[in-house]
Amino acid sequence: MVGQEQEESKIAPRAWERQLMVEEHSPMLRKYAQRLIGNADDAADILQDALITILCHPRGPTHVEWSAAWCRGILRNVAWHLRRARRRCSEVFVPVGEAISEAAEPHVDWERVLADRDVVVKRLAGASAEAMELIYRRYWLEENSTDIALALNKTPAGVRMKLKRLRSELARTE
């Protein structure tokens, strides 16, 4: 039993060990976040997200020497997530000049758009409640597979496979 406790302590550090690690590495992480982002407010937000992730992560480094690199890696991933989210958001909004020029030249075939919409509605009509929940969470709420898996008590890989099967069924159903 003692050997099992020692093995578990290597895999998942206790809460107080994580707290000490966070306190030790916070100044270094603050500087790293500022260097990655540049904006002090965004750097503070990223640091806060990274620290929460570090404290709540189910696994951690097995050696003390690896803790700084592990913490920097989590901070870097959080920063990249913010950059990708901003890029997605900026791609969604079209500059006003382009929107006005497109509005002046209507080129949308509304009959085609409505027909495509009807096809999607017909294809989704036979979907199960679980499939509809997956589609709603992924494409309407824009949750990732990990968030969906937590909400539906499934594994992220299972969610990804189910979504892949649903997409292929919707694509081939006529």
Question: Could you explain how this protein is built, in words?
Answer:
The chain is mainly alpha-helical. The chain has two domains: 2-92, Rna Polymerase Sigma Factor, Chain: A, CATH 1.10.1740; 108-172, Arc Repressor Mutant, subunit A (Orthogonal Bundle). Helix content is 79%, strand content 0%. The protein is built from nine helices and no strands. Helix 2 (15-37) packs antiparallel against helix 3 (40-56), helix 2 packs across helix 4 (67-92) and helix 3 packs across helix 4 (67-92). The longest helix has 26 residues, at 67-92. The radius of gyration is 23 Å and the shape is elongated. It starts with a helix and ends with a helix.
Write a brief structural summary.
With 174 residues, the protein is mainly alpha-helical. It has helices at residues 2-11, 15-37, 40-56, 67-92, 96-104, 110-125, 129-140, 145-152, 156-172.
Mean pLDDT: 76
What form results from the Cα inertia axes? elongated
Provide the gyration radius in Å: 23 Å
CATH topology of the largest domain: Rna Polymerase Sigma Factor, Chain: A
Tally of contiguous helical segments: 9
Number of E-state strands: 0
Topology as a string of helices (H) and strands (E): HHHHHHHHH
